[in-house]
Amino acid sequence: MEKILNEIITQNYSQIENYIETFLRKQIDNSSGFVFGLSGGIDSAVIAHICSKSFKKNSIALIMPDSKISPKQETEDALRIVDYLGIDYKLIDISMIHAQFANILEPNQRALGNLRARIRANLLYYYANLRKYLVLGSSDKSEFLIGYFTKFGDGSADVLPIASLYKTQVRHLAKHLQINESIISKKSSPHLWSGHLAEDEIGASYEEIDCVLYCLLDKKMSLERIHQETSISNEKIMKIQQLYKNSEHKRIMPKGL
Question: What is the C-alpha separation between 61 and 152, in angstroms, rounded?
Answer without folding.
Answer: 19
